[in-house]
Design goal:
The protein is α/β, with parallel strands linked by helices and about 550 residues long. It has 23 helices and 20 strands.
C-alpha cells in the first residue's frame, strides 16, 4: 500500500533553493572536505547550471541539498532552505514530504536507479501514487503522458518493458518522467543529458525550458556539457576543489571568464572546438585504404515482448572501417548504433548480411560456433564500454583487471613478465605504477576509463570498438582521453569503430562517419563531406541540435 505524503507549506515568495556556507566532509581513511563554504541560490523560473571537473563537488552539493549523501559524508556547517524552509536538520522521513511535490531529482546513472525487476510503467506509476490518488482507469494514460513529456515515443511499448530492454538514453528519459511525476516546483538534475543523443537532449531541454516559462519551474542542472550550460542556463556556477571559483550570467562567464580554470574548461569543450586533434606520438605506417572491418547489409531483429511485433534494431546496414582510421556511428537512441557495434565485436550474431575482418568471412563465428572459434576473433577486436565503473570488476585491483586478457588469451604465462607488461600498458594510458594495487572504486571516472582502455589494449587488438567511451566524462578529462586515443591510434596503427551521440567529438577524432536512424544507414562518408554538406534532412537536424555551437563563437 502506498504511503501518502502530507502537504508541507512553503513560502511562495522565497527562493526555491538557498544554500549558505555549506561545508561537506567525507570521513574514513582518507577524510576530505568535498564542499567548502558554498553559497548557491535558485529562484522560481531560473535555470542555473553547475559545471566543473570530476571531484569538484558538484554532485555532493546537490546530494546534500536533498539529503542523499552516503553514510561516509556529513554536513559540517551551513544551511539549506527549500521554499524558505530551513531543512538543514530535517530527518529523511520529514524531508520526504518535499521530495516530489516540491523538488524532483534526476540522478546521473539510470543503470542503477531503476528497479531491474519491475516494468517501466509500474515504476513511473509508483512515483505518481506517492503523492496523489490515481484511479486505476486513468493510471496507464497518466503514465503515458509523463513518458511523452520526457521525450519518449511508442509509450505503450515502453510501459510494458523492463529497464534492461531500453537503451541508456531511454532509461534516462524514464528517470526524468519519474522526477516530473508530481509536478515539482524545483528540478535538480545530476548529469541528466550525458547519455542522450543531441536531438533527444534538445527535446528534453526544450521541454524543461517550456515548464520554466509556463509554470515557473526552477532548474538546477549539474553538467559536464558546457555546450548545454551555454545554450540553456541563465546563470553558470563554476566549481573547483569544492568551492565556487566563478559565477555569473551565462553570457558574461562565456565571453569574459575571469578565472584561468574557467578558461581552461571552455578550451577543452568539444562544442567550442573545430580543429581535428593531431597525434603527439610518432605514427606507425599503416595502409589507410585497406578494409579492416566490413559490414554488408547486416540485419538484426529482436523480440519486443508479449503482444508486440519483433523489433528490427539493425536493418540492412553497411559500413567499412579502414586501417589506422576512426569510423564513427552517430544517431538517436534506438538507431541501432550499439547493436551494430555488438555484432562487430561478436557479442551477437546478425540475422542476415555479412561481416568480414581483414578479408576473412566471420559470419559463421558470429552465428554461434564454439567458444574456441571465437577466441582469435575476440582477441583482435576489443570493446571499450560507456561506463567503466560497471565494466570493471570491483573486487579486482587495477593490475588484475589489465592482466585478465593476458591470462585469458594465454599471452604471458610468466608472472614477472606479465606484471611488467601490465605496468607498460598502464603507462601507455598515462598512469604510473602507483595505481596497480588500487581498485576501481578508488579511481576517478577518467582514471577508470584509462584502465578500461589499457585492458582492451592488453590483447594486442587490431580494432577497438568504443561504445560511448567518453560520454560520461567531464570536458577536461574527455579531452585527455580523446587525445590519448588519437595518440594510441597513431603509435599502434589501430582502427577504431567509435559509437557516439556527441557530434562535436566526431569532428575532433573521426575520419569517416555513418549516420543511422531506426536501424538503417541514412548516409555515410568522410566527416567533412557529411557534416559540411549533409545530403539528408535527418543529418541536418542532428547537426542543428548540437549544443553550444553558437556559444562557441563567443568563447573562441
Amino acid at each position: 500500500m502506498a504511503v501518502r505524503r502530507k502537504h508541507v507549506a512553503v513560502d511562495p515568495s522565497a527562493p526555491l533553493l538557498e544554500i549558505e556556507g555549506l561545508k561537506v566532509e567525507y570521513t574514513g581513511r582518507r577524510s576530505k572536505q568535498a564542499v567548502r563554504g558554498l553559497d548557491l541560490t535558485v529562484h522560481q523560473g531560473e535555470f542555473v547550471a553547475v559545471v566543473g571537473e570530476s571531484g569538484s563537488g558538484k554532485s555532493t552539493t546537490v546530494h546534500a541539498a536533498l539529503r542523499l549523501l552516503p553514510s561516509s559524508a556529513r554536513i559540517e556547517s551551513g544551511s539549506i532552505r527549500l521554499g524558505g524552509l530551513d531543512t538543514t536538520g530535517w530527518r529523511d522521513r520529514r524531508l520526504a514530504h518535499l521530495r516530489g511535490p516540491f523538488v524532483g531529482f534526476v540522478p546521473q546513472d539510470p543503470g542503477t536507479s531503476l528497479n531491474p525487476v519491475k516494468r517501466v510503467g509500474v515504476q513511473v506509476l509508483e512515483a505518481i501514487r506517492l503523492h496523489r490518488t490515481v484511479q486505476s482507469a486513468q493510471s496507464r494514460e497518466l503514465v503515458h503522458e509523463k513518458l511523452r513529456l520526457a521525450g519518449l515515443k511508442d509509450v505503450e511499448r515502453v510501459y510494458e518493458q523492463y529497464p534492461h530492454e531500453l537503451s541508456g538514453g531511454m532509461k534516462q528519459r524514464v528517470l526524468i518522467a519519474v522526477a516530473l511525476a508530481s509536478d515539482p516546483k524545483l528540478l535538480i538534475a545530476d548529469e541528466p543529458t550525458s547519455a542522450l543523443d543531441v536531438t533527444v537532449q534538445k527535446v528534453i531541454l526544450d521541454h524543461l525550458a517550456h515548464l520554466r516559462d509556463t509554470l515557473g519551474l526552477g532548474i538546477l542542472l549539474v553538467t559536464h556539457d558546457l555546450g548545454v550550460a551555454a545554450d540553456r542556463a541563465d546563470r553558470v556556477v563554476v566549481m573547483k576543489d569544492g568551492a565556487i571559483v566563478e559565477h555569473g550570467s551565462t553570457s558574461t562567464v562565456l565571453s569574459a571568464p575571469n578565472n584561468a580554470y574557467t578558461r581552461r574548461l571552455f578550451a577543452a569543450a568539444p562544442s567550442f572546438r573545430t580543429a581535428r586533434l593531431e597525434p603527439t606520438r610518432t605514427a606507425l605506417d599503416v595502409d589507410r585504404s585497406a578494409t579492416v572491418l566490413g559490414i554488408e547489409r547486416v540485419t538484426k531483429t529482436f523480440s519486443a515482448g508479449r503482444g508486440h511485433l519483433p523489433f528490427t534494431a539493425v536493418d540492412a546496414a553497411s559500413l567499412v572501417v579502414r586501417g589506422g582510421t576512426t569510423h564513427a556511428i552517430v544517431g538517436e537512441s534506438g538507431a541501432g548504433k550499439s547493436t551494430l557495434a555488438r555484432i562487430a565485436v561478436g557479442l551477437t550474431g546478425p540475422d542476415a548480411g555479412t561481416v568480414t575482418f581483414h578479408g576473412r568471412d566471420v559470419d559463421g563465428v558470429l552465428s554461434g560456433l564454439r567458444h574456441r572459434a571465437l577466441r582469435p576473433y575476440r582477441r583482435e577486436i576489443q570493446l571499450v564500454y560507456q561506463n567503466p565503473f560497471s565494466s570493471l570488476d570491483p573486487k579486482f585491483t587495477v593490475e588484475q583487471i589489465i592482466a585478465e586478457p593476458l591470462i585469458a588469451f594465454g599471452i604471458l604465462s610468466d608472472r614477472s613478465k606479465r606484471r611488467a607488461r601490465v605496468k607498460e600498458l598502464l603507462e601507455s594510458v598515462a598512469l604510473d605504477g602507483s595505481y596497480l594495487q588500487r581498485k576501481a572504486v578508488e579511481l576517478s571516472g577518467g582514471q577508470r576509463q584509462r584502465v578500461a582502455i589499457a585492458r582492451a589494449l592488453a590483447a594486442d587488438p587490431r580494432l577497438l570498438v568504443l561504445d560511448e567511451a567518453v560520454s560520461a566524462l567531464d570536458v577536461s578529462v574527455q579531452a585527455q582521453i580523446l587525445q590519448l586515443l588519437v595518440d594510441l591510434q597513431a603509435e599502434l596503427g589501430l582502427a577504431y569503430l567509435f559509437v557516439t551521440h556527441d557530434l562535436s567529438v566526431v569532428r575532433l577524432v573521426a575520419d569517416d562517419v555513418t549516420v543511422m536512424k531506426s536501424g538503417r544507414v541514412i548516409e555515410t562518408g568522410a566527416v567533412a563531406d557529411v557534416f559540411d554538406d549533409p545530403s539528408d534532412s535527418y543529418t541536418r537536424r542532428l547537426l542543428e541540435a548540437v549544443a553550444g555551437a553558437t556559444a562557441g563563437a563567443a568563447v573562441s
